[in-house]
Amino acid sequence: MAGIPPRTRSRSSNASWKERSPLEILLHMGFSKERAEKALAVTGNNGVHIASDWLLSHVNDPHLDDLEAQEYIIYLCPCGDFLKRLGIYWETSMQSCGWNAAHIYHPHITLCSFFKLPNNKVSVIDSVITCIKQELLQWPALGTFKLELFTQSKNFIGYFVLSPYHQFIEKLMIRVHHEFSKAGIEMKPQMKQLHMTLAFQYDQINHDVLMKLAQELTVPLQTEWEIKVFSRNPALKSSEVRKIIKRYKPQQDDELELQEGDYVHMDPEEHERSPDGWFKGTSWRTGVSGFFPGNFTTRCSQMDIWTVHRSASLPNTSSGNVQVDVHERNLDSGILNGIGDYDNLWVASSNGTAEGEQMYAKVKKPPKNFGSEPRRLFVVRHGERCDFAFKNWFERCFDAKNVYTRFNLNCPKQMIPRANCKDFIKDCPLTVIGREQARLTGESLRETGQSISYIYCSPALRCVETAQEIMTAYGSHVKMCIEPSLFEWLGWYKPILPIFITPEELEVHGFAVDSSYTPYVQFESIPMTESVGEYYRRSHSFVNSVLKKHKVAGGNILLVAHSGSLDSCTRQLRGKAVRNQEEFRNIVKGCPYCCLCMAVEDFSSSKWNLAEPPIPQLTHGTNKEYKWDLLMS
């Protein structure tokens, strides 16, 4: 029998396929680099097979070449028996009280804010997970994973994580933050009170039922937890996601094929637009859009179409019974901190049960405003401004070389860099007292349990700084949208208009601004010659558009603007006529810094009514400049 002949040639290039990266293989298959990187990111960087399948199934997706990066987030997720019990609570609470905002997500504890990761850096997650696993191996035996039930708020029911796990998880996320930073990725860990939401933004009449269900939910002695890295398409964060429960083959060209196991995402306003129970949506599996019968689908969690990238298990934990006196939880610890994670909440119109499906089958819409509560519109004036606090403040602060010096303790310690410091003359910052006024306002909103889902702000620097201070004190992660419609009447500024800092620049300087927001109007389009009546109509038009935009999602809205805004943004909502110039000037005079008004939605009349603000008034005396040299006379 002949032996094996000697080999004289080195291995061919074909033999090195196993050493090639998934990206290299996809490029060799003929896919463009951008599409290949996107496919790997969207599918969790889980290999060539799943990425190529995704690319082929999305060949008719009109958004295939959109290169916006995925949004990522890290959750601590319950597993095993505890997850099953939570699932039963989720289903029971939905059947008993209808959909609330907690149902948008699976049970979880938020460990960081959403962050962007470029498609070509998705492999960074592997090194982060390795870092997490190494840290977890160094944890000592921590014993019971303690959770404390909180039901005192009328808008939130959930668990809080107690010591020692709370501190260890915080330290872990700081390490994760450093790991991302090394790769040039900005990830902000959740440094507020860690919590798991059981119910949120529900009708207050359901509070006692939801509280009872939560108290009946027992936590097993042994609990399992996993740290998971998820990603989602940022374009879909406000979408309603529906699971396909019945196949449908299109009968017309504009209809969408439905396959069991697939999901459809759509604009929540489709419920209002549809006259016949047919909705326009997009297939999650193919990216193709079309009309589909709503009763062949059922609403589900947005997380059903998120991608799980990597996970790491916590060391074995045990948990005790969490039925504690709810009054032991201190409100000052920040029960609403982190609620901004639910950043595009919408309230369902059917309860997701068999009865709800029958309603769809009969092509009947559920009662209007089912499962929702009246929305609140908060309008607040900015805090104390430098140019009104100090005469000739600019000339006293800036020298001939444009160097800033604080001449009074109430002046800002430092100024935001601007291309031309003279822009501060028409667009001044807050004083130190102004920031404190805004902080007190935000703190009071938090303590009174007022939820805020959306923030719109005038482009004036004093308003942006006010909004930032309010939401920092409130503990919200909701980003503000800069809206020129909210700027005050231009009659105050003739003939020179202010030059504002752009949203992109504000974001660079650390302001929580949504730089992707498209304004309702551009500032340049507002006529310099506008009358007071036109100013009222400008304000009302924007407010109307915002209320309509968020009608299905629900949630309260905060507008941070100017003294005239409290009237101009609410007067026509109440069916009142615009004021003339004299009336307008008189009403503006009575608006102190950080004054707040609240308009409440009236379902019966489709109008809005003013109501007493939920927070106390902010009043303080003046503190004039002291002329010490008078003592020398």
Automatic annotation (TrEMBL):
Residue ranges of every copy of the SH3 domain listed in the record: 237-302
Domain UBA: start-end pairs: 16-58
GO CC annotation: cytoplasm
Keywords: Cytoplasm, SH3 domain
Entry's localization field: Cytoplasm
Site feature location: Transition state stabilizer: H562
Gene3D superfamilies, alphabetized: DNA helicase RuvA subunit, C-terminal domain (1.10.8.10), Phosphoglycerate mutase-like (3.40.50.1240), SH3 Domains (2.30.30.40)
One Pfam match: SH3_9
Chief subcellular location: cytoplasm
Protein's name in the database: Ecdysteroid-phosphate phosphatase-like isoform X2
Gene field: LOC106069612
